[in-house]
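Troubleshooting: if your tokenizer reports a length mismatch, compare against these two reference records.
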Amino acid sequence: MSNTGATLFIEPWATMDLGNELRQLSSEEKYEIERILRGLSLKVAARETEIVRNVDVVAQFDLVLAKARFARRARAQEPVVEDAAGGDSSVLKLVNARHPLLGDKAVPSQLRWAATIPPSSSPARTWAGRPWR
């Protein structure tokens, strides 16, 4: 009988056993799929640390490659940092620097930035400096 009760379905006796067997096989198939997925999940869970580490490494490679592609497209160059006279400060030279979002409309600039750069072992990560020509 249908959900509304308006239609009555009649199944011949000859196909009744086949229908029951089909439902049984479908149920067994569902159980087997769940068993296989449960086993695979346990194997993946056992390697969680390695998988997370690999995802992090791939993400780092992806970031480096994205930066390289952007740098190539923007015709970017690595800035030059030179030691200034006096020892504890450095000069950052930007030659033909252009704003990357302005594209071909950008006007190249020559900049030199005198800065005190903390040593790499220092927790400070900022530069203190002033424009210098």
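Reference record two:
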Amino acid sequence: MNSWSKLLYKTLYALMPLTIILYWQKLEILSFISAAITMCILSGLLGKSMGQYEYYSGPAKSALLNSFVGNIAELVIALFALFLGDTELVKGSVIGSILGNLLVVIGACFIVGAWKWKKNFRFKKIFVRSNVAVLLLVIVAMSIPSICNILTPIDKANDQLVKYSLWMAGILFLVYIVLIVRNNTDHSIHALFSREQPVWTKAKARLMVLLSAILVVPTAYILVKGVERVSISLGINELVIGMFFISIIANIPENSSAVRFAYKGNPNMAMAIPLASCIQLSLFVVPIIVLVGYIFHHPFIMVFSTMQIAFAGIAFLITQQFTHDGFGTRFFGFLMIIFYICLAIGAIHLGGIK
């Protein structure tokens, strides 16, 4: 374990009890900040633990574990927000994760990879195209309930939209199952990636996965409880906090891993991480939220605003345009990040300020 990892773990040991104490003392803004930093460290620990444990498990088992445990931070945050009645935070974090992964992370990989290796950032087109095609399906599926919301009479809207959301969630989850089977049976996909040798034993990796997953739960609760106070204090809508803060916190470890692979000269893995993160969020986390919300009478209706659908569609079109040739440049990466900044400014001014 290097000195940087030791420092992070020591920080976690100090911040976890501090976060709980601040919450008990009803210092909501301070507890929110502390919980946000703690969540970043926990997400990083969870990602590293899963990476170590995947080496010892088979492809099918590691895929299933990564689907649930790898997305547990986003899932727990979304469920707490749903049960506390903050559906805008849920929608914001979903759209924000898509924007951040497609524009910021891929853009950063283009810049770092092209700068480090003094050439274009080249990757396998067929793999990226297949994932981008899945994302097109996601955007279409997210748009259908929103269109139905416009066309359905007001007195029938809620019941109909709950049914539409359940149908769309079921379809998305079915696609996810097919995708897992395809990825585990297609050996040409396995050949694109390389695994790093583990430095932990199997028992330690399993223990760290379990411990970090457990600690995510109280941290996520404190984080979500603090959103309302922060929203009032800063005068910013919960939707914007979800899009450009919560989504970043939950994805920092994956984002940094993608950039690290780009720096090390593994462009296929660098591209796979942000694309897989978007797909797992849309095809696994969102359907689980819809199903759990329906069972416990806190329905999550997949009706996104016109702005949210438009922003997701714009991010998709930009990604498709900059990846269809199988290479990226520093200039492409720079433009993708500028696009993200423009969308962020637009979100803040289109209803983001209270």
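Descriptive notes for reference record two:
- The domain at 3-352 is CATH 1.20.1420.30 (A middle domain of Talin 1).
- The two ends are 46 Å apart (CA to CA).
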